[in-house]
Amino acid sequence: xxxxxxxxxxxxxxxxxxxxxxxxxxxxxxxxxxxxxxxxxxxxxxxxxxxxxxxxxxxxxxxxxxxxxxxxxxxxxxxxxxxxxxxxxxxxxxxxxxxxxxx
Length: 103
Fold this sequence. Notes:
The chain is mostly beta strands. The protein has strands spanning about 10-15, 20-30, 35, 40-45, 55-60, 65, 70-75, 80, 85-90, 90-95. The protein contains no helices and ten strands.
């Protein structure tokens, strides 16, 4: 399956507990079809004291969310849009299907 969402994209969650939340994609796991989005799907995790975190305690982190629950934000209008691929000026580019603008 071709993933149309890449690291650095601004996305909106379209289903689930965090529906309507927007954020920037920090990381994409192509094998599991999941992405980590900034400020979305945060979980509290207990961490043991270590050299990196000497106090330990409860830490909030972003958990992965499935790609199918995300929709790319159109840079022109700010609405959720689908993504298309096209050859323009001899280069393959991604574009927003709503506004036909290159992403």
